[in-house]
Amino acid sequence: MAQFTTISEILEAVEEEGIDFVKFHFSDADGIFKEIDVPSALLENAFSKGLPFDNSVGGTFRPTGADLMLKPDPRTFSILDAGAKQKYGRVICELTFLDGQAFDGCVRSNLKLFIRKIYQSGYTFSVSSSLSFYLFDADFKGDAPLSLCPETVLKMENVKRDILSVFNNADIDVVSLRQTYVGGPISMVFKEGSVLRIADNMMTAKYIVSDVARRHNLHASFMPKPATSLEGLAVTFGFTLMKEEFNEFYHPDQDMMISDKARGFIAGIFKHIRAICAVTNPTVNSYKRIVQKGKAPYYVTWSAVDRNSLIRLPSSRGRATKIEVQNADSSCNPYLSLLALLAAGISGMDENLTPIAAVNFETHDYSDSEKQALSAGALPNTLREALLAFNSDDHIKDALGESISTSVFQTGTIEWSNYIGCVHAWELEKYL
């Protein structure tokens, strides 16, 4: 599918394909796509002037006392197939006030502005990423055994095939869509790209996966830990820092063939990681995945060998040198997660920070005390711990902006209050 760049190209494609409406998508602070359907006859005006809307549609946006404007980005336009030969257009939007001034609650524009500052300093970040999900029958009940009859397995295979087809139409480049065992999590590995494009692709992928699964009478879940017995759902972000044609994270003559900038980036993330978790691991369920200390990282370590470390260095060097962060989960908002991680990593570079020594061996057989001795601490055990760290970290809050930071903290605090005030099945089984 050709990538669109101008409004005239979009209008021409809409007419040729017989598209009746276009979905204007925009992300709230929780990382959920909100949408407004715009009839094709009104598209030219909506693209050229923007689309006013009541900001209550945004859900987790802090009230502004004024309506907002959706400003679509033509480069994100694509035509999606909803099945039964029904096609519709989709475009990702940013949010402004009606007079065109920036709205500081817009997660996409905040990330874009941050990237622009990096670019103006002469550097460019590119990102690789992966995102996992489960496919369940509609009647799946948590810790009950996952029943996979032949009909369900066939549905899953059809879903995966259709997902790849829609991805192709939406111009989403994936390296692979893999499931290592039947009934296990399905991982989408995205082709490396610009920071903003990767965030857009991850948001769009979640939307497409949920839509395709629903059409096959299955449920796509991005819940980080949907059952005690099931593997958690991870998100990884791999960062590469380029200046002209040279990878600034690479240094052939230093230990592990990585530069001081790479070490500073790692140390910066370590310094702020407990606060970052409020963004990369934003739900109470996120910490069910972390505290089990399985494949998810728990201790703050980095390694080129130990696959369960918080930060991993893939083996490739030279131009392909990459710093991969592994703590995020599938409930995260990719716009905010990338912004928080970049802000922390760059601050570590600017401050010339140095991380603790790397762990150059596998630690899966080590005791907790041995792992702790090798680390710079541990990730939060609960959402409450992460929120307290977030509220005390001015650097991360400044990077996100006042409106978004307030939303992250308030939304998380409400979720935590609701969670601790609820009687759960485990308590009934143990105490009733």
UniProtKB/TrEMBL annotation:
TM helices/strands, residue ranges: none
Species of provenance: Methanimicrococcus stummii
Record-listed E.C. numbers: 6.3.1.2
GO biological process: one example: glutamine biosynthetic process
UniProt family annotation: Belongs to the glutamine synthetase family.
Domain of life the protein comes from: Archaea
Gene3D superfamilies registered for this protein in UniProt: Glutamine synthetase, N-terminal domain, Glutamine synthetase/guanido kinase, catalytic domain
Molecular functions per Gene Ontology: glutamine synthetase activity
InterPro entries found in the cross-reference section: Gln_synt_N, Gln_synt_N_sf, Gln_synth/guanido_kin_cat_dom, Gln_synth_cat_dom
Extent of the signal sequence: none
Keyword Zinc on entry: no
Entry GO CC: cytoplasm; membrane
PROSITE patterns associated with the record: GS_BETA_GRASP, GS_CATALYTIC
Domain spans labelled GS beta-grasp: 17-100
Protein name: Glutamine synthetase
SMART domains: Gln-synt_C
This protein's UniProt keywords: Ligase
Record domain GS catalytic: where: 107-432
Gene transcribed to yield this protein: glnA
